[in-house]
Amino acid sequence: MYTDSKILKSLFYIQMISSFLVVVGHFTASVLYFNDPFWVVALNQISRYGTVLLTIATGYLTAYSFDKKQPSFREFFTGKLIYIFIPFLVSGVLYHYLLKNGMPHTVGDIANIVLGKTGDHLYFVFMICQYYVVAYFLRNVITKRNILYVIWILLAVQYVYIHYLHQGWLGLTTRHMLPTWIFTLYMGHLIYWYREWILTFLRNNRSILMVVTGVSTAAAIYFVVSSKLFVAVHLTFVFATLLSFLVLMVFFLELVDHLHIKFRKGLTYFIFLFHSAFLILFKDFFYQVFGEVSWIFQNTWYSLLYLLGIFVCSALFSVLLVQLVKRLERAWASMGKIRRERLQ
Question: TM segments (predicted)?
Answer without folding.
Answer: 12-34, 46-66, 78-98, 121-138, 147-166, 178-195, 207-225, 231-255, 267-289, 301-325
